[in-house]
Amino acid sequence: MVELKTPEEIERMRVTGRFVADVLAGVRERALVGVNLLELEAYVRERIRERGAVSCYWDYSPSFGRGPFRNTVCLAVNDAVLHGLPHDYVLRDGDLLTADLAVTIDGWSADSAISFTVGTGSADDLRLVRATEEALAAGIAAAQPGNRLGDISAAIADVARGYGYPINTEYGGHGIGRTMHEDPHVANNGRAGRGFLLRPGLTIAIEPWFAAGTDKVYTDADGWTIRSADGSRCAHSEHTIAVTADGPSVLTSRN
């Protein structure tokens, strides 16, 4: 069931979204060569505690994970892209890092992700990150009232094809609001003009992610981290948005 949010409820989600954006900016600032992923997890955990927020990940137990998730941020390095389990790993020059964060404040959730290179990034990695960012922007631009969910999915896929990247549809975006995951599912590939009608009050997380060489993935031995099947690099960009009468509004804007 899809719940449409009131303008007042959307503004409450925006409060959470601004916090998520600020914490992700802090992660990016601290993700330097020689920094351990566990240090970044500790930073996020402390920010959430200070704000009185609630991590959407802590104790999360979906069917695709092994037991409850016991961290507050997903951190994925190089060939990892989704549900990255923070672990004892020291960042190296040239690593490609994805940070994905979802929290709830006063009963309203927001979710966002960024990918970036640590130290000196390769041209290929920077291109991959840019593709996800452009796909995210295209998906947001398509989230107009009166359009269909497939318009968002098709816009994302058009960017991926333009860059020559394959598209996995097993994992994608989702509705969000009172909880992190709500209906509808937002695939990263689809047919324009098809699917759920976009109406003011719809709040969704749009999250294009691509692996450079494959659309196949597997779950790491840690039971959580999703990696590319061929070991190629991955990137992921995500925003929580609201469809309004005036068009899409980004609730996790980092500007």
UniProtKB/TrEMBL annotation:
Binds 2 divalent metal cations per subunit. Has a high-affinity and a low affinity metal-binding site. The true nature of the physiological cofactor is under debate. The enzyme is active with cobalt, zinc, manganese or divalent iron ions. Most likely, methionine aminopeptidases function as mononuclear Fe(2+)-metalloproteases under physiological conditions, and the catalytically relevant metal-binding site has been assigned to the histidine-containing high-affinity site. It is an enzyme of class 3 (hydrolase). Its EC number is 3.4.11.18. One of its GO terms (cellular component) is cytosol. A divalent metal cation 2 binds at residues 111, 174, 207, 238. It catalyses: Release of N-terminal amino acids, preferentially methionine, from peptides and arylamides. Residues 11-245 form the Peptidase M24 domain. A divalent metal cation 1 binds at residues 100, 111, 238. It comes from the Bacteria. Substrate binds at residues 83, 181. It holds the Pfam family Peptidase_M24. The keyword Hydrolase applies. One of its GO terms (molecular function) is initiator methionyl aminopeptidase activity. Gene3D superfamilies: Creatinase/methionine aminopeptidase superfamily. Its cofactor is Co(2+); Zn(2+); Mn(2+); Fe(2+). Removes the N-terminal methionine from nascent proteins. The N-terminal methionine is often cleaved when the second residue in the primary sequence is small and uncharged (Met-Ala-, Cys, Gly, Pro, Ser, Thr, or Val). Requires deformylation of the N(alpha)-formylated initiator methionine before it can be hydrolyzed. Belongs to the peptidase M24A family. Methionine aminopeptidase type 1 subfamily. Monomer. This is Methionine aminopeptidase. It comes from Nocardia ignorata. The lineage of its organism: Bacteria, Bacillati, Actinomycetota, Actinomycetes, Mycobacteriales.
